[in-house]
Write a structure and sequence with these properties.
By secondary structure, the protein is α+β, with helices and mostly antiparallel strands. Helices cover 38% and strands 25% of the residues. The chain has helices at 3-25, 67-75, and strands at residues 30-32, 38-42, 45-50, 55-58, 63-65. The chain is globular and about 45 Å long.
Length: 84
């Protein structure tokens, strides 16, 4: 296997695991889909999130990238802030 492809696969696998852990720590509710994505409960409904690539799309057309941006969108605070 091409070394770059293997490295990319490993990075995506790590992203899947770490993104789910960050959502749990932030108290964000989600459920897994059969295709590796997550359905995240947001303030305006369900948000589709692909943790391997970081892409998220809300039903209202909001799009972005990164689990930290997704958490901020839902909670209006960064994952590092935690509960106050």
């Amino acid at each position: 296997m091409n070394p770059q492809k293997k490295q990319s696969q490993e990075r995506r696998a790590h992203n899947r695991d770490s993104s789910a852990a960050m959502l749990r720590r932030s108290g964000v509710k989600y459920r897994r889909t059969t295709m590796g994505g997550l359905l995240v409960d947001g303030p305006a409904g369900v948000i589709k999130f692909w943790p391997a690539t970081g892409l998220f799309r809300a039903g209202d057309g909001t799009e972005g990238r990164g689990v930290r941006n997704l958490i901020w969108l839902i909670t209006n605070k960064s994952p590092e802030q935690g509960e106050e």
